[in-house]
Amino acid sequence: MTTAAAKRPQLAHLTAQLDDLRERGTFFKLRVLDDQQAPVCTYDGKRVINLASNNYLGLCNHPKLEEAAIAATKKYGVGSGAVRTIAGTMHIHMELEEKIAAFKGVEACVVFQSGFAANAGTVSSILGKEDFILSDELNHASIIDGARLSKAKIKVFRHKDIAHAEQLLQEVQNEPGRKLLITDGVFSMDGDIGPVDKLADLCEKYGAIMMVDDAHASGVLGRNGRGSVDHFHATDKVDVQVGTLSKAIGALGGYVCGSRDLIDYLYHRARPFLFSTSHPPSVAATCIAAFDILENEPDRIQRLWDNTAYFKQQLTDAGFDVGGNTTPKSETPITPIIIGDGRRTMDFSRALFDAGVMATGIAFPTVPEGKARIRTIMTSEHTREQIDQALETFRSVARKTGLLQS
């Protein structure tokens, strides 16, 4: 039955845009998870091999994390009751920040409600309209939004192009204002690794602030998952490290690491921190337990990389484009299967789901027109049998839909 509100014309422009998505074949409905986030789980009542989750190390349902969450809930309750700067800072929040700072080898850390809030809140608070931001053209949307909110002048350098980044630094080096260079540690759509070491050297040369978003590198690259900055031995050259607690860590949130002054400044000026209620104590306890596991179970990261290498090679051998032709080459557990056309990509994703594999189609505007892809993410907890079954499904569905020749 049509409601009275649905007939109102004020939001008709949204309906028109949704109709356009349907016409393009890129409209989607949310898949609903019926059980735990796992290598094999149930979405919309269907049992599928899950290749769409950011649960790199299988920590979303690790017993030690579950126990930590339950114990913290019993001790501290389910919520903090306030923002951090008023009455919502609990001892467990400070313990988590100290844990992350020690893990990363820096002076201090502040935890945000999400990785998006960490990026956007940091960039927008430490710069102003007289400053300059130099950003890789494929940086995450949260970096782009933070740059816009800062009102700083934005210069975009070609993806991983060191020479172009230096050219832009040279152009602005004599301009008044601070200069901030930002890159992703791992780029979320193509799975390639940012040249953190070389960009950090440029920042040293030109006196720019160096910032790295390590969301998809946290728990994946570096010693025990310390991230791309550690991977490149660049901790002393990177001024601002952003990470996530929502992917390999298995819970929720984001964080910023750096000097004590940086973190104290963000306590005072980062708007998402100032105006958002702090994490439930169960989430903070879960994250603390996750960092303990990173330190004590390095075999999880090794399994992740072993599974990734096998999966990539098998896809390549089957004839799929997993990057490196018209897109950057994947170097991490994020493995895109490039198809190009948006409609064809979404149709392939739906066919895979019907055949028992959850692998998300991603099209414009998340990626440029003509570069739509199925984005897959491997985890440490997928078994070889599950991977082989998923690979056979990819091959079979691709042959049926004409993406691969029989």
TrEMBL record:
Sorted keywords for this record are:
Acyltransferase, Biotin biosynthesis, Pyridoxal phosphate, Transferase
GO molecular-function terms, A-Z: 8-amino-7-oxononanoate synthase activity; pyridoxal phosphate binding
Q: Gene3D superfamilies attached here?
A: Aspartate Aminotransferase, domain 1 (3.90.1150.10), Type I PLP-dependent aspartate aminotransferase-like (Major domain) (3.40.640.10)
Positions carrying N6-(pyridoxal phosphate)lysine: K247
Q: From which domain of life does this come?
A: Bacteria
Q: Provide the cofactor list for this protein.
A: pyridoxal 5'-phosphate
Q: In which pathway does it act?
A: Cofactor biosynthesis; biotin biosynthesis
Q: Which InterPro entries match?
A: Aminotrans_II_pyridoxalP_BS (IPR001917), Aminotransferase_I/II_large (IPR004839), AON_synthase_class-II (IPR050087), AONS_Archaea/Firmicutes (IPR010962), AONS_Archaea/Proteobacteria (IPR004723), PyrdxlP-dep_Trfase (IPR015424), PyrdxlP-dep_Trfase_major (IPR015421), PyrdxlP-dep_Trfase_small (IPR015422)
Q: Which GO BP terms sit in this record? A: biotin biosynthetic process
Pfam families hit by this protein: Aminotran_1_2
Domain Aminotransferase class I/classII large: from-to ranges: 47-393
The record lists the catalysed reaction(s) as:
6-carboxyhexanoyl-[ACP] + L-alanine + H(+) = (8S)-8-amino-7-oxononanoate + holo-[ACP] + CO2
Which EC number(s) are documented for this chain? 2.3.1.47
Function, as annotated, reads:
Catalyzes the decarboxylative condensation of pimeloyl-[acyl-carrier protein] and L-alanine to produce 8-amino-7-oxononanoate (AON), [acyl-carrier protein], and carbon dioxide.
Q: How does it assemble?
A: Homodimer.
Name the family: Belongs to the class-II pyridoxal-phosphate-dependent aminotransferase family. BioF subfamily.
Q: What name does the UniProt record give this protein? A: 8-amino-7-ketopelargonate synthase
Organism of origin is Tunturiibacter psychrotolerans
